[in-house]
């Protein structure tokens, strides 16, 4: 199969696989890209990795890191009417050249602006080379919050990874679990309850996908019975 012309900057976050597949560089999830469409990749980044900002142009893509507050670039949080901030800390493991793992921490804040509208702002997505101990993690988060002068505004921190939960407790922040992550856990447990029929249905679908004669016969029967 000839390689896809990777004009979209989304390809900086995915690896192309055979059979119209793409692998996410952050969570390793494999997506289907029918007709070489990037729709599924764009949807995946928006839903699974919302803190990663992408310029959808033909220029090279990079993780956008806003500048620290200065006279030329004032702090949007400090200028808002809100005195409370919800922070979201997300650890990311990014494969680099399939040899090592580059580790990053994404820090996003949510607060009310001067019009009392909810605003989300990516403060930083920084590399993390130290051991992932609670002490190292909490020190890094406190340093970033101090840099942005929100250390006294944070009322809660939302995390999904267990290895950072201890750091949140050590920092004396209120911990809030990710709602989407919790729902996903509920779904995964629910799927275990229907494992047997799920396995049988999956085997039937895979059989018709692998066998062209069987698929042709199935379509013939569907036509005879007036089924879609």
Task: Name a few traits of the molecule.
single chain; 228 residues; alpha/beta; five-stranded mixed beta sheet; three-stranded antiparallel beta sheet
Characterise the protein shown here.
Strands 6-5-4-7-8 form a five-stranded mixed β-sheet. A hairpin with a 5-residue loop joins strand 5 and strand 6. Helix 5 (195-210) packs across helix 6 (212-225). It has 228 residues and is α/β, with parallel strands linked by helices. It contains six helices and eight strands, in the order βββαβββαβαβααα.
Structural class: alpha/beta
- Classify the helix fraction into a percent range: 25-40%
Low-confidence stretches: 1-5, 56-65, 92-100
Instruction: Give the termini separation.
Output: 31 Å
Largest beta sheet: strand ordering: 6-5-4-7-8
**What is the global morphology?**
elongated
SSE order, one letter for each helix or strand: EEEHEEEHEHEHHH
Q: Please count the beta strands (DSSP E, at least 2 residues each).
A: 8
Residue share in β-strands: 15-25%
Q: Roughly how many Å is the radius of gyration?
A: 23 Å
What value does the average pLDDT take?
76
With helices defined by DSSP (H or I, 4 residues minimum), what is the helix count? Answer: 6
Described by strand count, sense and barrel closure, the largest sheet is:
5 strands, mixed
